[in-house]
Amino acid sequence: MTESHLRASALTFTDVPDPASGRGYRYLTDAVLTFREGRISALVSAEDFLQAGGDLARCEHFPGGLMLPGFIDAHVHAPQLGVMASYGRQLLDWLESYTFPEEARFADEAYAGQQMERFLQALLAHGTTAAMVFSTVHTHAADALFEAAARRNMCLIGGKVITDRNVPAVLSETLDEGLRATRDLIERWHGQGRLRYAVTPRFAITSTAAQLQLAGELLSARTDVYLQTHLSENLLEVQKTGLLFPEAKDYVDVYDRHGLCGPRSIFAHGIHLSERELDLLATRGCSVAFCPTSNLFLGSGLLDVARLRRHGVSMAVATDVGAGTSVSMLRTLAEGYKVLQLQGQSWHPLDALYSITLGNARVLQLDAHIGSLCPGKDADLVIVDPSRSSLLAGRLETCAGIDERLFAMIMLGDDRIIRRTYVAGVPVFDGPAPI
Ligand SMILES: [Zn+2]
To answer: In angstroms, how far is CA 54 from the centroid of its own chain?
Structure first.
């Protein structure tokens, strides 16, 4: 049985971290992580490893490196790398001007295949080992996404967009086509290896009530399948949704009355929600994905995280690429911190790093398998090396303790500091060797 040993410092979480008491996380300045057959078997200090008869010479050593659980992106669009950084629009115009034309290109199977490969390589190069992902409306594009993830043995929740109104003709499908294709994709991919399926209406505006109803029926028949969609991102979108669904009490009610609100439902954004909507999300066990770079970029608004927490709504963290401006979860946390600062709130670096690892794993109900460097879990991990950014390396020299170091790493780090990424114990990305 092949066993691998990695040596570096390590940070992992057992629960929501409490920096004051030191509970909820483990930080080891010199650690050995052991895994075999794709699963973590031990995380111990180098000293304990030696005392137990281990041979440090057998460890692959990353001096100055930090091992972390692989990052998890809770909301991202695989077909949108090509529209990142597109100028001058807010949500609805942005979709019309940039997103729909780009997603239409995925009708070409070869293009779809190439882009899905490119997307997953981008995730891994940024230390992201698992994600909840939108594909396009095309069935073959969703197949290409799942095939590419299966080849890398990645943990991925994905779904084909279903839509039966308010999109260009090239992206439209009938109600029956969308649902039939979704059922087929669930049969093909859900539960295959590390893959899961999410029913994926783009948002309420692009689905009729009949389609949302059928999506809800599908979810009630398959309670292990997820739902991913958008919610209350932009004020004009909220207004338009109200006009399209006059019978609904509010935006959340549009989804709830069709059976789309449950503990496996992840709603991106949720910025402009009423008290009633937040209470209902909490009651149903739904989660909101905080997408700070996207919310700033499209001028959508600032998510009031404290308010969300007060209502007991669980929160995931996500890039929302291509409206998001970085694939990096570190950049996402840095912008999230600023969004909170603008509202007089703060985000402790330990809590931020918890959010993109064990926190997101819990929201996605994948924490039995991923999210921490804990024996029995899949060996999805990232080794960061802050010395690869000279600015960050210089800043770390003036940091007093681990909290300050982690905060500097979040604020100044990005894909340049990703030294290596592992998926189920296999190295899948190597940054350039240290100088
Ligand atoms: Zn999105």
So the answer is: 36
Residue-wise pLDDT for 265-284, tens only, equals 999 999 999 999 999 999 99
Domains of the chain: 3-69+372-430 (2.30.40.10), 71-363 (3.20.20.140)
CA of 55 to the centre of ligand 1 (A): 47
Distance from Cα 221 to the centre of ligand 1, integer Å: 26
CA of 300 to the centre of ligand 1 (A): 12
How many angstroms does the Cα of residue 91 sit away from the middle of ligand 1?
10
High-pLDDT (> 90) share of the chain, %: 95
What does 55-88 look like in DSSP terms, one character per residue?
A: -GGGSEEEEEEEEEEPEEEEEEEGGGGGGTT--S
Q: Tell me the CA–centroid distance for residue 59 and ligand 1, in Å.
A: 41
Q: Supply 55's token pair.
A: 């041979």
Give me ligand 1 centre to Cα 246, in Å.
24
| Rounded average pLDDT over 281-301 | 98
Q: How far is CA 419 from CA 11, 26, 253, 392, in A?
A: 16, 21, 45, 15
Q: Ligand 1 center to residue 320 CA distance, Å?
A: 5
Task: Tell me, in angstroms, the distance from the centre of ligand 1 to residue 4's CA.
Answer: 37
pTM of the model: 0.98
CA angle, residues 107, 110, 113, in degrees to nearest 5: 95
Q: Is the pLDDT of residue 202 over 80?
A: yes
For the record, the structure tokens of 148 come out as 């590419």
pLDDT at 65: 96
The position carrying tokens 């290596």 is 420
Amino acid type, 34:
T
What is the whole-number distance in angstroms between the Cα of residue 75 and the centre of ligand 1? 6
Task: Work out whether strand 60-69 and strand 381-384 pair parallel, antiparallel, or are unpaired.
Answer: antiparallel
Per the structure block, which two tokens stand in for 382?
Answer: 């990232």
* Residues by chain with Cβ below 5 Å of ion ligand 1: 268, 320
Give 56 Cα–ligand 1 centroid separation in angstroms: 45
Whether pLDDT at 434 is above 70: no
